[in-house]
Amino acid sequence: MAVYSPVTKNELELFLNQYDIGKLIKFEGILEGIENTNYKLTTSKDIFILTIFEKRVQNKDLPFFINLKNHLIKKKFLCPLPIENKSGNCINFLNGKTCVIISYLKGTKTCIVSSHHCEQVGRVLSSLHFYTTDFNEKRINGMNYTQWENIFLKCKSINSQKYQSLNTIIEKELLYLKESWPKKLPEGIVHADVFQDNVFFINNNFSGLIDFYFSCYDFLSYDIALTVNAWCFENINNFSKDRFLSLIKGYQKIRILEDEEKKYLSTLLRGAALRILLTRLHDQLFHPKAAFVEPKDHYEYLKILKFHQKINVADYLL
């Protein structure tokens, strides 16, 4: 989450007249994250989150995200509830940009990750995969291999000596992934953004998952790969076997990984690392000057990529 679009109190008060969520008492920007503008709204009735969509989120995809969260809530999955306005619409406009208001989830992200957290994250991810087997909508992954190539070409257009060696690494990895990416694995709805910023805990117990705006239909084990990279490295430099095994253990309490998924896990982990490396590099090179948040370090995911190029962590599952 972040703040790219400033909003005044008067603008917010006028906007909230469309809703039945109480009078605005105070609001504050949420500076974490990088994708959208987010405000925490405190009203006379409750606390809510206002999200104003920026950059990568397309308006045509918003009904999918809204319907997905409503579907999960019906299954008692802990995620934000989209709030309808007085006309029954969840998707609205503020200052010319698309936005939604969602319920506020109690809890905070954990700053000290343990195997206990990772086991819960694995179980939550598997629950999401299970609960969406009867969700009938699909959305193509907008961050697929073709988009990785497009992002790289845009980044490469910045002709700088500083990034030449990195560009060479990325080019080689893109070629490897094009040749090695699996053709067929179990598919379903994936969250694709289960980073530590998006998982809340209360007293070290899971209390909610947020930020569904990369959700799509893809390989389930690709979602696992993205999550492993986000949770199983200590200070990015050290892979934690204990965290990894705990995450997989939690996941398999609901859904058992197939042999083919284990076989391709190393490739999926490399692709997941490259995907984040590329988007972080893009955000570093094309960062809006007016943004209130600093882009995240892309070199962290270069280190993760290099680790997976040398080590096949699926061997730990044998």
Your description of this structure?
- By secondary structure, this protein is of the alpha+beta class.
- It has two domains: 9-103, 2-Layer Sandwich (Phosphorylase Kinase, domain 1); 115-317, Alpha-Beta Complex (Aminoglycoside 3'-phosphotransferase, Chain: A, domain 2).
- It is built from ten helices and eleven strands.
- It has a five-stranded antiparallel beta sheet with strand order 1-2-3-5-4, covered by helices on one side.
- Helix 4 (145-156) packs parallel to helix 9 (265-285), helix 5 (164-180) runs antiparallel to helix 9 (265-285) and helix 9 (265-285) runs antiparallel to helix 10 (299-310).
- The model has no long low-confidence stretch (mean pLDDT 94).
Percentage of residues in DSSP E strands: 15-25%
The whole-angstrom Rg is 20 Å
What's the CATH H-level homologous superfamily of the largest domain? Aminoglycoside phosphotransferase (APH), C-terminal lobe
The best one-word shape is globular
Class derived from helix and strand content? alpha+beta
